[in-house]
Write a structure and sequence with these properties.
Helices cover 55% and strands 0% of the residues. With 65 residues, it is mostly helical. It starts with 11 loop residues before the first helix and ends in a 14-residue tail after the last helix.
């Protein structure tokens, strides 16, 4: 058994993604960056506007005096 816990094929989701990306480390880093940008774009353009009416951020209890 390995002394390093992530060396025995249990390195999680990010390790799985990194292993399955094509190319060398530079290409993998560029693809990873593009994936992160795509996820952030989808969150800000579609998910957050959809979820905003469901969240209680506008329910304030301070009076306007």
């Amino acid at each position: 058994m390995s002394q390093v816990p992530w060396r025995d094929e249990r390195d999680g989701m990010y390790g799985w993604i990194w292993r399955h990306l094509p190319g060398n480390a530079g290409v993998k880093a560029l693809i990873s960056l593009m994936l992160i940008v795509a996820v952030v774009y989808v969150l800000f353009q579609y998910v957050f506007p959809w979820a905003e009416p469901l969240l209680p951020f506008n329910d304030v209890t301070v009076d306007n005096q």
